[in-house]
């Protein structure tokens, strides 16, 4: 636990106090809820956590809206967003609700501190529930450092590291150039826009799923099984399937703690789709304080509504290959708004992607290194659609019967891959994980 707090406070030590305080206060409320089952206490504790998140993440956004409407400047100081606040806030809300509903018990303070602060999942998930992690602390695997757990953990961590350093960071070069070109009012062609957006689409997948693989791998080293957060999302055959595979713990949280309490699909189709839109709008806002994130959520709400209506009323079944490609294209278009700094930038890229602009000349010299970008995209396509995911690879290696020689060869390959990643980070650094900003 001490290592987790040191890890959290490495970049900005004062926020260690914030993390410790919010853990202590939430645990105290959890004890009160456990004893009283008070709806008022539960609501207040949840509101307190949301207020903290709102101040650090949305106060500036709200001040900008007030200024845009009234011309009144709120004069707020610059607020540094605490790392992982969106994730640990949702974890603590889930803990409070689960205690109120009798799904879990408050337990000990040390266990709760461990639940929230465990460093592999603290910054960017997965969102771990009390009932998923705490029972494992008393099991026969925790902190026993079993060879099979360490081996599986190292494999997962190494794959995640390679995803981040070798793929995501290199794809980011081409994705960033597209958005930089638009911010400089440089007109881009349809091919350039699609190249840039495909690079970002694979970048965010390798970046976020790479972090999740590393988190799960570190958990296994300690003998803990963290919940899976990704399961080959770009293989999804429809947008409903996509959200069952992408950021799975967030999807589960939004379903269990927002969609179902709103009524879910129990109150007729109109209420059902209204609830769906509310969930996706708030899910978009959870990612970032900006209207483009809200629109990203709204767009996915629209996709989901169309998909549900299609499956409900249409007898036509689209072939798997076509439905997978259509789903992927829809996701790519939505990522434009997720990545864009504003609607003007997003609109310019969408116009370029739909051939509504002149051919244009990319003035950022991307074609000097275009071969590498295209090669990265080819590798990304092969890995995403034609290869097993990191968890499947790890599971197959765990159950496979292999010779000592082949085991040593695989260990050599894995070690070399990790060494290349670490050398690249040492020489040229590495981009921050995308989801660290949330």
UniProtKB/TrEMBL annotation:
<keyword id="KW-0472">Membrane</keyword>
<feature type="transmembrane region" description="Helical">
    <location>
        <begin position="12"/>
        <end position="33"/>
    </location>
</feature>
<feature type="transmembrane region" description="Helical">
    <location>
        <begin position="150"/>
        <end position="168"/>
    </location>
</feature>
<dbReference type="GO" id="GO:0042121">
    <property type="term" value="P:alginic acid biosynthetic process"/>
</dbReference>
<protein>
    <recommendedName>
        <fullName>Probable alginate O-acetylase AlgI</fullName>
    </recommendedName>
</protein>
<comment type="pathway">
    <text>Glycan biosynthesis; alginate biosynthesis.</text>
</comment>
<dbReference type="InterPro" id="IPR051085">
    <property type="entry name" value="MB_O-acyltransferase"/>
</dbReference>
<keyword id="KW-0012">Acyltransferase</keyword>
<feature type="transmembrane region" description="Helical">
    <location>
        <begin position="214"/>
        <end position="234"/>
    </location>
</feature>
<keyword id="KW-1003">Cell membrane</keyword>
<feature type="transmembrane region" description="Helical">
    <location>
        <begin position="109"/>
        <end position="130"/>
    </location>
</feature>
<keyword id="KW-0808">Transferase</keyword>
<feature type="transmembrane region" description="Helical">
    <location>
        <begin position="364"/>
        <end position="387"/>
    </location>
</feature>
<dbReference type="InterPro" id="IPR028362">
    <property type="entry name" value="AlgI"/>
</dbReference>
<dbReference type="GO" id="GO:0005886">
    <property type="term" value="C:plasma membrane"/>
</dbReference>
<feature type="transmembrane region" description="Helical">
    <location>
        <begin position="408"/>
        <end position="427"/>
    </location>
</feature>
<feature type="transmembrane region" description="Helical">
    <location>
        <begin position="189"/>
        <end position="208"/>
    </location>
</feature>
<feature type="transmembrane region" description="Helical">
    <location>
        <begin position="40"/>
        <end position="58"/>
    </location>
</feature>
<feature type="transmembrane region" description="Helical">
    <location>
        <begin position="318"/>
        <end position="338"/>
    </location>
</feature>
<dbReference type="InterPro" id="IPR004299">
    <property type="entry name" value="MBOAT_fam"/>
</dbReference>
<keyword id="KW-0016">Alginate biosynthesis</keyword>
<keyword id="KW-1133">Transmembrane helix</keyword>
<keyword id="KW-0812">Transmembrane</keyword>
<dbReference type="InterPro" id="IPR024194">
    <property type="entry name" value="Ac/AlaTfrase_AlgI/DltB"/>
</dbReference>
<dbReference type="Pfam" id="PF03062">
    <property type="entry name" value="MBOAT"/>
</dbReference>
<feature type="transmembrane region" description="Helical">
    <location>
        <begin position="270"/>
        <end position="287"/>
    </location>
</feature>
<comment type="similarity">
    <text>Belongs to the membrane-bound acyltransferase family.</text>
</comment>
<dbReference type="GO" id="GO:0016746">
    <property type="term" value="F:acyltransferase activity"/>
</dbReference>
